[in-house]
Amino acid sequence: AAANQNDPTRKISAAGSISARQATYRIVSASSGGGGYVIDDRGQVGKCDGVVLISGIATDLAKKAFDPYQASIVSVKVYDNLKIVSATFSNLAEAANARNELATKLTGATVSLPVIFDVPQLH
Predict the structure, then answer these.
(1) pTM for this one?
(2) Minimal CA–CA distance to 25: which of 8, 11, 7?
(3) What pLDDT is attached to residue 11?
């Protein structure tokens, strides 16, 4: 989504939507895996892999921030050279909830749940 990822008023709801400024995105869970799809108010479909990214703080602090969510996390990757930690969640709703909580707890960090709306396709 194009909204500011640091905006603490931006909430991703496990109840089925992402609200960012004046736009709302409905979450449509995938049949398998931790990802899913979102639909914006114009009917455009975006893909989300259920990955929460933390940047802007030390990687050891970011990795520790994921500790309370270990039961829902499939994998955690640390990219020290980029100062980014990513966690893949078992489902999109849990990823959305974790993103919301971490965005309010981690002062100075950028916490995001990337959504891709423009996926190239082979013809």
Answers:
(1) 0.76
(2) 11
(3) 59
Q: Looking at residue 91, what DSSP letter applies?
A: S
Alpha-carbon span 52 to 88, nearest angstrom = 7
CB 85 within 8 A of CB 66: yes
Q: Where are the domains of the chain?
A: 11-112
- Using a 10 angstrom Cβ sphere, with 0-12 exposed, 13-18 middle and 19 or more buried, the burial of residue 99 is buried
- pLDDT tens, position by position, 70-96: 999 999 999 999 999 999 999 888 888
**CATH code of the region 11-112:** 3.30.70
Which of left, alpha, beta for 108 (phi over 0: left; psi -120 to 50: alpha)?
left
